[in-house]
Amino acid sequence: MAARVLRQHGPLLAVLLLAVLLRLVNLNSRPVWYDEAFSILFAQNSPATMLAGTVGSGGAAAEEHPLLYYTGLHGWMAVWGSSPAGARTFSVLFSSLTVAMIYLLARRLYDRRTGWAAAFIAAIAPFAVYYGQEARMYALLGFTTVTMVYCFVRGWQTGERRAWAGFALFGALSLYAHNLAVVFIAGLDLWLVWHWWRGRRGAARWQNARPVLLAHLLMLLLFAPWLLVLPRQLGKIGGGAYWITRPGLTELIQTLLIFHFAYDNQALPGWLLPPALLLAVLLPVLLWMGWRASRRAPAGGESPFPGAEGLLLFLTLAPVLLTFLISQARPVYVVRALLPSALMYYLLLARVLVLGRLPRPVKGAALLPALAVVLAALLNHYQYQLFPRPPFAAAVAYLAAEVDEGVVVHSSKLTYLPTYYYDPALPQAFLADPPGGPTDTLSEATQAVLGIRETAGLAAATAGQDRVWLVLFAAEVAEMDDPGREHPHLAWLNEHYHPAGVQAFNDLLVYAYRRDS
Fold first, then answer.
1. By CB count within 10 A, which of 56, 234, 364, 494 is most buried?
2. pLDDT tens digits, 410-459
3. Contact 147, 195 (CB under 8 A)
């Protein structure tokens, strides 16, 4: 019996083990950066306090994300602690479960072999691994959306009420995980419209229309409480006063690269970028060739779900294109929120690799270099300690040993929040973002929940202090329009204090200043 179970499920168990191991590498030692520090510090509060920090006051939202992830992380850290590993294992759990759900979905759409291949791709894809290690809501979003699609496919095939209820429930949970889940659900709905429009006349044309409509109504009902907050959140990121910019062709190319081999907020090394970009273009071409070859081939290997490739194609492309188009009027294009589409693409790619009628030499010529690039991208990810995640822990250890009196001043919240996470007792302050500018994203209500307060300027931050340490990224100095012009923060400190050295932690710089007594 055990041998039979192992023979049937051994490949899946091996893939799941691989997924977990890849997501545990350097989990505690990788630097915590601004977004992760925010998640952990925010989730240390009670759900009621987090709600107050999200809703804000005066009709304007403070935090732009729903609270499902933060509430779950709050309960998780109550058991596992708020260390980097303690917080990140919450994402490891959901990312690993997503690999299992990809297998179940692929098996229902096709067969067990396709399930193994899809799970393997999702297990090793750098984009999925990155957010499987990140203390943010994207691993949770991937799990809820893939489970939603699985319930939809099962309900469509079997008509089970519990499957349709699961579709509604996980659709609502996806919306509670991230507001941009709506574009993924819209991609599924566009497939429904396309499927019904091209169907045969008569009752069969409107297959499952009633349960689909009822499930959508239930999903809307479950999400209804958050609809009172959603307009405020959309208002916060609208009008250009937010860090997200209007996307163009460059962002679409970056999305293609990220789906295959990269991540959206840390860079690949320069030598790896050309082969990664080349293969990111060639693999979709291989997919298209395999799909065409399978359509010309004799019958065999058909999906038990009619239109499976169309469904996956809609779920891959429609959310990307919808987000792109919406962002021309109201920029919301964040590639990490498109992780669910990447997961559907991995399943589509697995289908072609397993069932597509392509010569083995063609597959090998593409897949072996692709695996090599994936390995290199993962190694780069595990060792990455540059912007926006330099070695904050080392910088904090240095400051804790140096700062016996005086104050540490951060040029922005991007360096302050991770430093505050590693050592809340360190005397430090951070300078306020330009009011109403694209970086002015940390509202007063959210600051109150975190227990921090921005400072208007260097004069206020350093008042009465004889020793000052300024923390900023090297890129802030390098971005000056005039190479000979001094950074304004450094210029002010040089005017009022004497330089006492600079310490570099990769591209994180700590400038020391003193005032003679």
1. 56
2. 999 999 999 999 999 999 999 998 887 777 788 888 898 999 999 999 99
3. no
Q: What are the helix (H) ranges across 25-137?
A: 34-43, 47-55, 68-80, 84-109, 112-124, 126-132
Q: How far apart are CA 88 and CA 486, in angstroms?
A: 39
d(CA 229, CA 61): 7
Task: Among 383, 415, 447, give the residue marking a domain's end.
Answer: 383
Residue bearing tokens 């559907």: 344
Q: Distance between CA atoms of 259 and 126, rounded to whole angstroms?
A: 8
Find which of 146-150, 262-266, 307-311 is predicted with most confidence, using mean pLDDT.
146-150
CA atoms 69, 311, 183, 334: torsion sign: positive
Q: State which of 321, 350, 383 marks the end of a domain.
A: 383
Tokens matching residue 182: 């709506």
Residue 47 is assigned to a structural domain of this protein: no
Nearest to 222 by CA among 177, 270, 184: 177
498-505, strands of its sheet edge to edge: 428-430, 407-410, 467-473, 508-514, 498-505
Res 240: pLDDT = 47
b/e sequence 381-411, b meaning 16+ C-beta within 10 Å: beebbbbbbbbbbbbbeebeebbeebbbbbb
Q: Verify that 326 and 215 share a domain, yes or no.
A: yes
Q: Return the biggest CA–CA distance within the chain.
A: 91
Sign of CA dihedral 350, 354, 355, 358: positive
Mean pLDDT across the stretch 478-503?
85
Nearest 5°: phi and psi at 318? -60, -45
Q: What is the pTM of this model?
A: 0.94
| Domain boundaries, position 491 | 392-514
31/109 Cα distance (integer angstroms): 40
**In a shared domain, residues 357 and 409:** no
The reply to whether 267 and 175 lie within a common domain is yes
pLDDT in tens, 449-487: 999 999 999 999 999 999 999 999 999 887 655 666 789
Structure tokens given for 492: 């002010």
Q: Give the tens place of pLDDT for each residue, 232-291.
A: 777 666 544 467 889 999 999 999 999 999 998 889 999 999 999 999 999 998 888 877
Which tokens belong to 44? 């240390």
* CA dist., res. 345 & res. 319, Å (int): 12
